[in-house]
Design a protein that fits this description.
The chain is built from two helices and eleven strands. By secondary structure, the protein is an alpha+beta fold. It has a domain of 117 residues: Lipoxygenase-1. The strands form two sheets. A six-stranded antiparallel β-sheet has the order 5-4-7-1-9-10, with no helix packed on it. Strands 2, 3, 6, 8 and 11 form a five-stranded antiparallel β-sheet that branches. A hairpin with a 4-residue loop joins strand 4 and strand 5. Helix 1 runs antiparallel to helix 2. The protein is elongated and about 45 Å long. InterPro entries: PLCC (IPR025219). It comes from Phocaeicola vulgatus (Bacteroides vulgatus). This is Lipoprotein.
Length: 172
């Protein structure tokens, strides 16, 4: 940005000295436009890594007194064209977003290879008597590499328990 300001001031000086010709004025305008495009090109390249695509996957595991708790999740993803298509652990298309109550020990959801983001938001609730335990692990992967993990244990105390959690494959 400092380079751009220096060039701008230098161009203004040149224009003031050579105001005699319309050709010189147009040359300065085109020169400035060229520098703006070149200066902004680096900014786009640096941010391009934020949009690296791949297969994003979220795995949810639960153990403990699972019958005493309700675990609900909503999962979504994004690719360069908009919402990413989601697939279950069998590879079946389940929609552009997915919401479910977890009834098994493990549940997973993944995108195709064009996604750049995936997120899971969930809630745990229970009205069971005190002393019931639930352990939740939510793991985010990009191209089979773990990028985020949440491990949490919930213990009932006889009162109504309602808590939320979220995990994404990238920081927002």
């Amino acid at each position: 940005m400092a380079r751009f300001i220096d060039i701008l001031f230098l161009s203004i000086i040149v224009v003031n000295i050579n105001m005699k010709s319309k050709f010189t004025l147009w040359s300065v305008v085109l020169l400035l436009a060229g520098f703006i495009f070149v200066g902004c090109d680096n900014e786009r390249t640096e941010n391009a890594s934020d949009f690296q695509t791949g297969i994003h996957k979220i795995v949810i595991q639960q153990s403990g007194d699972t019958d005493s708790f309700e675990v609900s999740v909503s999962i979504g993803g994004a690719d360069k064209g908009g919402p990413a298509k989601l697939y279950n652990d069998k590879g079946e298309y389940i929609g552009d977003s997915y919401s479910a109550q977890i009834r098994t020990a493990t549940m997973s959801c993944c995108t195709n290879g064009n996604a750049f983001f995936m997120t899971c938001a969930g809630s745990v609730s229970s009205i069971s008597e005190a002393g019931k335990r639930l352990h939740i692990t939510v793991i985010g992967y990009i191209d089979d590499k773990e990028v985020n993990r949440l491990e949490k244990e919930y213990i009932t105390d006889g009162n109504t328990l309602i808590e939320t959690f979220s995990v994404s494959t990238k920081e927002i």
